[in-house]
Design a protein that fits this description.
25% strand, single chain, L,D-transpeptidase catalytic domain-like, globular, 9-stranded mixed β-sheet, alpha+beta
């Protein structure tokens, strides 16, 4: 799903560059399924961590309050205003009854849970899941991300043809066919904001 943010809403600007502001159109935002308050929250967090960001083009937002069968990863292009949406997994430990809802979050090693908060993307590597993108947590809620090997990667268990999406060991894994374009767009210092609940541990 692709929506375009073409107009102005409440003065929120997507770009970090004040000389090239990208305003927000509320109707188009709603069409993409991204809540305006969540976008505002993510942009405020991005601005707070701007010193950590070297790839300013994209902001990635993941709304874990939604079921995993819904598109809940939003790739926001701060230059054009476009928003691309896609499926994304949560951890097994966050959804022990496998009903598609992440109900608990943690940054504890070996928990297999999803952690939430602000991240910055780092380097890529090739592992057992193919091309993968490391994440560094910027907050207490996700500071173990690198040590836990919480990375963005493609996975066969994420597929729009499935009625119930699979779960990861805590990684925000995406549909394999879409993983490389996503990783190529946001590698090397892009801001990622995840939300959806209260941390359990």
């Amino acid at each position: 799903m692709l929506a375009t943010l073409a107009g102005l809403f409440a003065g929120l600007m997507l770009s970090l560059n004040p000389q090239q502001p990208t305003p927000v159109d509320y109707d188009k935002l709603s069409a993409a399924g991204l809540d305006y308050a969540l976008l505002e929250e993510a942009i405020a967090a991005r601005d707070a961590y701007r010193g950590e960001i070297s790839n300013e083009r994209f902001v990635t937002i993941i709304d874990y309050s939604k079921n995993s069968s819904e598109d809940r990863l939003y790739l926001v292009d701060t230059k054009t205003g476009d928003i691309e949406t896609m499926l994304v997994a949560h951890g097994q430990g966050s959804d022990t009854n496998h009903d598609g809802f992440a109900e608990a979050f943690s940054d504890t090693p070996e928990s297999k849970m999803t952690s939430i908060g602000a991240f910055v993307t780092a380097e890529t590597y090739y592992g057992k899941h193919g091309l993968s993108l490391r994440l560094d947590g910027l907050e207490d809620t996700n500071s173990n991300a690198r040590a836990r090997a919480i990375v963005i990667h493609g996975a066969d268990y994420i597929n729009p043809a499935r009625a119930l999406q699979g779960r990861s060991w805590g990684c925000p894994s995406v549909e394999r066919a879409r993983s490389k374009p996503l990783i190529d767009a946001i590698k090397g210092g892009s801001f990622v904001y995840t939300t959806g609940g209260t941390m359990s541990a």
